[in-house]
Design brief:
Blueprint: E1 12-13, E2 22-32, E3 38-48, E4 57-60, E5 65-71, E6 74-75, E7 79-81, E8 84-87, E9 97-105, E10 115-119, E11 122-126, E12 145-155, E13 161-164, E14 167-173, E15 178-184, E16 189-190, E17 196-199, E18 202-209, E19 215-222, H1 231-248, E20 256-262, E21 269-270, E22 275-279, H2 292-307, E23 316-317, H3 323-342, H4 345-368, E24 379-380, H5 389-405, H6 415-429, E25 433-434, H7 436-445, H8 451-454, H9 456-459, H10 461-464
Helix pairs in contact: 1-2, 2-3, 3-4, 3-5, 4-5, 6-7
Amino acid sequence: MTSLREGAPAVVKREDYTAPAFVVDTVDLTFDLDPAKTRVLNKMRLRRNPGVAAQPLRLDGEDLNLARVLVNGAGTSFKLDGNQLVLEKLPEGDEPFELEIFTTCQPAKNTQLMGLYVSQGTFFTQCEAEGFRRITYFLDRPDVMASYSVTLRADKAAYPVLLSNGNLVAQGDLDDGRHYAQWVDPHKKPCYLFALVAGNLVHREQKIVARNGSEHTLQVYVRAGDLDKTEHAMNSLMASIAWDEARFGLPLDLERFMIVATSDFNMGAMENKGLNIFNTKYVLANPATATDTDYANIESVVGHEYFHNWTGNRVTCRDWFQLSLKEGLTVFRDQEFSMDMAGSPSARAVKRIEDVRVLRTAQFPEDAGPMAHPVRPDSYAEINNFYTVTVYEKGAEVVRMQQTLVGDAADPSGRAGFARGMQRYFERHDGQAVTCDDFAQAMADANPGSDLARLLPQFKRWYSQAG
């Protein structure tokens, strides 16, 4: 007799969290892009985590063909344990070592649209939550933050546009009609924020100057024929950048910021560092066919993904139980952005009513039914099931309550106190992977006389209780 539980996914529990056994300092990826067989050379610099007991290195991987593993330039023994590559004979101590892994994958056959895939002749990636393991073997968890350098090589006629995270540092032609582009991301990031796009795309470009005088290039990439539908998305991006710098003092931290639209995408949009990938629904708008709601949704989603550049990218989640750390906070930020863009008090009120209506019609039933779960869950069998209105919209309301609770007689709205809390949050945690508790603590510490500081232990029950 076969058990109904046979083959069921293992349940992951928040209380079982342990820090990674290894730290990844740098990742140097080289892609030879081919729809049938893409070759990926992954050169990493790692070291043992001094705070964790010595143990083998276990790297996640799915649907990969492994061709070579080298440690410090020499062959090494390894084993494959299910979907993990296990290396036991590694240098002792905390001295860094080089690990080189050469694999191939088949993007054209990747119908999951997770990892590296091909859509209508263009390469795309989607790595959140656990898609990077379908690109190369890696410690695929959000608390492993590393510096990335990426080189893309492909046929120039078929794939004239080669994009990845960060800043473009080199590009040129190769033999046999191929070309290359090298991208370097100056900020450490978890692997779920990695992205590449390669294809025959056109783009709208805009130069902007930040408050500090630095120049930036903004680009929106789409398929030929859709360029006339990208003006609103570009205007929304410019408004988002200006708003985040004015409201929270958070500037654009890259030389360029890119948006790419594709019709084949599992999510509405994805905040990959400097290279946001969107479903076309949230980028393309033509006055002849788009409604006011379409325009508002594009502004909101473009803003949401840009605001992740700080709340989610510069400071990210320690583990996936903390998903609302980035999503609840960023939904709150995009709600505030849309309200500020609305202008008049009555228009702001209408926007707030719309947000509450979503909460009442979608989140309240979830919270009252069999799918009820806390804003910060305690366990999951499949993390993709937790991208819910509870984590997002209720999470945003928990953040909004914190803004209210740091208000005082001089600042009844709490906006100034909340801005102080955000500043404290980034002073403490920029470049780190942290928890919902860390955010609430920073907010309370920045406003020591507030109701939030006084009631923090009780307030944090909002994160752990459903209903």
